[in-house]
Design a protein that fits this description.
6 strands, 4-stranded mixed β-sheet, 159 residues, 12% strand, Endonuclease, Chain A, alpha+beta
């Protein structure tokens, strides 16, 4: 597997080409499946998670494990919980919290997940899709990993 495959970015593909390809893939999915897939309204935009993955790579930060690569509480609880982005060696994670996290039955499950994560020593940063788009999310990770900027100031910045 090449480095590009690890990230979802193809070998030799730059940021603009990645975003163009992901947008085309989303458009094809919407055309094929219609506007509702698995009970969720789909858009033609690149997902905030794909945008965040690209930002992390372009910032030169360590490659995180993505949501299907690491189940953080399986040994302790038997549960199949995972984070959008995680760095298990640091017990650091980022969750991109979109509208689906506001659904009442999902919200309670998320609270259980994040409380267990805290009990297991994880630090979980929650960011909105807008914070990903505005650059706040990647700025916070630059502060954590590279000491670039004041983390508290960044986290309080308005998008």
């Amino acid at each position: 597997m090449s480095i590009g495959d690890d990230w979802g970015i193809r070998e030799g593909e730059d940021g603009a080409a990645f975003m163009k390809r992901k947008t085309a893939e989303r458009q094809a999915m919407v055309q094929k499946s219609g506007p509702v897939v698995a009970g969720k309204l789909q858009t033609e935009e690149v997902t905030p998670e794909d945008r965040m993955a690209l930002d992390v790579k372009l910032a030169g930060l360590p490659r995180p494990l993505r949501d299907r690569e690491h189940y953080f509480a399986r040994e302790a609880t038997g549960r199949g919980w995972r984070f959008d982005f995680s760095w298990p060696g640091l017990k650091l994670a980022v969750e991109v919290d979109g509208g689906v996290h506001r659904i009442s039955n999902r919200f309670d499950g998320d609270m259980e997940k994040f409380n267990v994560a805290a009990a297991l020593g994880w630090t979980v940063y929650h960011v909105s899709p807008e914070q990903v788009r505005s650059g706040l999310a990647i700025d916070a990770l630059r502060a954590i990993f590279k000491g670039e900027g004041d983390l508290l100031e960044i986290l309080q910045r308005k998008t």
